[in-house]
Design goal:
By secondary structure, the chain is α+β, with helices and mostly antiparallel strands. Helix content is 24%, strand content 31%.
Length: 285
C-alpha cells in the first residue's frame, strides 16, 4: 500500500494519471459506476480507494453503503462536527486544507507557485466584479477521502446562485502548480449570501473536479453534473442557520470563500492548516 501511494504521490505520475486523460469521459464513467446499487461492488471500490487515500469511515453515520456514491456523500454521526458557539465566529463550511489566501490585488487571486487567475474570468458577472474587486479570499481543498458535505458558515440567506459549466481538472496542489487559471476552467457554482443582521455579503464558490464532478445545491433542490452545458443565474431567498447543510460534492474538490476585508482571519489559520467543518475561521465584524 505504501509503495502504491509513493508511486501515485510522484508529481509527474499524479499529474499524468489525473489530468492527461480524457477527463470528462472518465468523470462520466465514474459517475455511472458510483451510482450502481451493489454492496459487494461498493466494498471492493472502497477497498481500492483505501489503497490510495487515508479514508476513515469511523465518523460516518452509516457503516454500510449501497453504492460508492452513498459513501462519497455520507453523513456524519450527530456531534461529530460541533459548531463554534461564539456569536462572532464565522466557521469553516467544510472539512478541508487551506490553500491560497489573501486579498484580490489588481484584479487577480493567487493560485499556487507563482500562478494567479483573473477575478473577471472566475466570477464572470460584471456586477460581482465591481463588488468583490477589493475582497479577501480563502481556498479550502477537500481531498477525496474527506467528508464531502458543505454547510453555512453563519446564519443568513442565499440571494443568488450562478452556475458555470466547465472542465474537470484535478484541483490538487500538483495540478494547481502547473495549470494556469485552473479554477476558471472548472465547473463551479457561485453562491451569493447575506450573513447576520448586518447582511454582510459573502460568496461561497464550490468548484468541481475530476471523477464524479457533481454538486448538490439544496437551495435549488438540484444536483449539477459535468454534462450540463452553459451557464445561468437563479435568484433565491433561501434562509439558513449557522451550520445548516447547504449541499455536497460527490467527490473531493474545492470551496473558495470571498469576504469583505473587515472580517478578521482566526489566529493560527495559514496555508496548509487542516480544517473541520464548524471550526472558527473568521471573526464577523
Amino acid at each position: 500500500m505504501r509503495a502504491l501511494r509513493a508511486v501515485f504521490g510522484s508529481e509527474d505520475i499524479n499529474f499524468l494519471l489525473t489530468n492527461r486523460i480524457p477527463r470528462l469521459a472518465v468523470t462520466h464513467w465514474v459517475g455511472w459506476l458510483s451510482r450502481i446499487k451493489s454492496p459487494l461492488l461498493t466494498r471492493v471500490c472502497i477497498w481500492v480507494w483505501r489503497l490510495f487515500t487515508d479514508l476513515d469511515l469511523s465518523e460516518a453515520k452509516e457503516q454500510r453503503f449501497e453504492s460508492l456514491r452513498d459513501c462519497f456523500i455520507r453523513e456524519l454521526k450527530p456531534g461529530a462536527r460541533p459548531l463554534d458557539a461564539d456569536v462572532n465566529a464565522f466557521v469553516s463550511p467544510c472539512d478541508g486544507i487551506v490553500g491560497a489566501m489573501g486579498r484580490v490585488e489588481q484584479g487577480r487571486l493567487f493560485q499556487a507557485k507563482g500562478l494567479s487567475y483573473r477575478l473577471d474570468d472566475f466570477l464572470i458577472h460584471d456586477r460581482l466584479l465591481s463588488q468583490w474587486a477589493d475582497a479577501q479570499y480563502l481556498t479550502i481543498r477537500l481531498t477525496s477521502a474527506m467528508y464531502h458535505r458543505f454547510h453555512a458558515p453563519y446564519e443568513g440567506r442565499l440571494t443568488q446562485v450562478h452556475y458555470i459549466s466547465g472542465d474537470t481538472w484535478n484541483v490538487n496542489p500538483v495540478a494547481l502548480s502547473r495549470v494556469e487559471s485552473l479554477f476558471c476552467k472548472n465547473e463551479r457554482a457561485i453562491l451569493e449570501a447575506e450573513l447576520g443582521l448586518q447582511r454582510l455579503p459573502c460568496l461561497m464558490i464550490p468548484i468541481a473536479a475530476i471523477l464524479v464532478a457533481s454538486m448538490r445545491i439544496h437551495a435549488l433542490d438540484r444536483t449539477f453534473t459535468s454534462r450540463l452545458p452553459g451557464r445561468f443565474s437563479v435568484p433565491v431567498d433561501y434562509r439558513f442557520g449557522k451550520g445548516q447543510e447547504l449541499g455536497w460534492f460527490e467527490h473531493g474538490s474545492t470551496i473558495i470563500l470571498m469576504l469583505p476585508t473587515e472580517c478578521a482571519l482566526a489566529e493560527g489559520i495559514q496555508t496548509g492548516s487542516e480544517l473541520k467543518m464548524g471550526q472558527w475561521l473568521f471573526r464577523m465584524p
